[in-house]
Amino acid sequence: MFRRLLIAVVVTLAARGTVANPCEGRPDGLFVNDFTACDAFFSCFRGEAIPGVCPVGFVFNEDAQLCDFPWNVKCLLCPADSADSPTPTLEPIQGECSFYTLCFQGVGALRECADGLLFDATAGICDLAENVDCDLGICPSNLNPNIPTFLPNPADCSRYFICIGGMAEEAQCAPTLLFNPDTRRCDLEENVECIEGSIPAPTTCPPTGLHYLGNPVDCVSYFVCLNGVQSDASIECAAGLIFDVTISACAIPNDASRCADGSDPSLVPAPEPTNPPVPEPTIPPVPEPTIPPVPEPTIPPVPEPTIPPVPEPTIPPVPEPTIPPMPEPTIPPVPEPTIPPVPEPTIPPVPEATIPPVPETPIED
């Protein structure tokens, strides 16, 4: 498992424009997003925002409060003039087709298009998938290619994709299970919100947080509220979509959809297309740039390093090798060989041969 590098606060005191203080009312030691760069952040100290940047190759992760690998973070970027604009803008996120950044008063918020819609970076709206040219494929380019990532299949809640090495392989959950995008695993049906349920939507701008209010005049636009301040202009949904207050997003109308006034969007007549007049371009006067004073950086005192004394190495005496005396070799006497006497051979006496007498045989007449 990869180890995440904890935040290395590299303070870079530089002028960053007239953005509202993001640390106002926040506790000390908190790190917050700087929406001008993916690796930039602010460190809150005594109500002041101290800018900093992550080490090279890392981006800031506000949720985890650390500098993280790029594939773990959706980088939210807002235009430089977002802080001074009364109109919210929708900005694309690199490597994403269904997520986008909503920028208002210099603050970015992560948003996701409704099911079946993709974010059109050119038009700045969520639109039907067939109307959006998003060639990122199923697997986003910012995923770690060496670690499998499980992504939901927007067309089927019981199926999901496994991304590894930039390639996607579709898989099927076991029967009676659905893929849970929050836990990224197959789960029981009661634990998975396959279809968004009815969520009460605010009708007035709440005093804190980021909210989206449907336009009561029509059913196809909405306003953005940030900390009690409502945007001057409304944002229109793409053609064929309505702003569904049950999910606080532009979506394809269905039986559960509702407009800001609580009416059924199927009963709302389609507005006649109108071509608004194009005003003559006016070039506003460019004020002289004012450079805010840059406070002198305060560097905490660094104590002098103390080097403990290194004792002289002591070499123990090596005793002289002792060779034990070797005894003189002794050769045992070799006895003279003894030859046993060989006895003289004895020849037994041979008895004289005796010839038996032959009896006389009478001769007959």
Automatic annotation (TrEMBL):
Region feature Disordered, mapped onto this chain: 260-365
Keyword tRNA-binding listed: no
Biased composition (Pro residues): 268-365
InterPro entries: Chitin-bd_dom, Chitin-bd_dom_sf, Chitin_bind-dev_reg
Gene Ontology annotations for the cellular component aspect, listed alphabetically: extracellular region
Molecular function GO terms recorded: chitin binding
Chain ranges passing through the membrane: none
PROSITE patterns, A to Z: CHIT_BIND_II (PS50940)
Keywords noted in UniProt: Chitin-binding, Disulfide bond, Glycoprotein, Repeat, Signal
Classification via Gene3D superfamilies: Chitin binding domain
Domain Chitin-binding type-2 intervals: 20-77, 80-134, 136-196, 202-261
Matches recorded under Pfam families: CBM_14, Cornifin
Domain of life the protein comes from: Eukaryota
Signal peptide extent: 1-20
Glycoprotein found in the keyword field: yes
The name this protein goes by in its record: Chitin-binding type-2 domain-containing protein
Taxonomic path: Eukaryota, Metazoa, Ecdysozoa, Arthropoda, Hexapoda
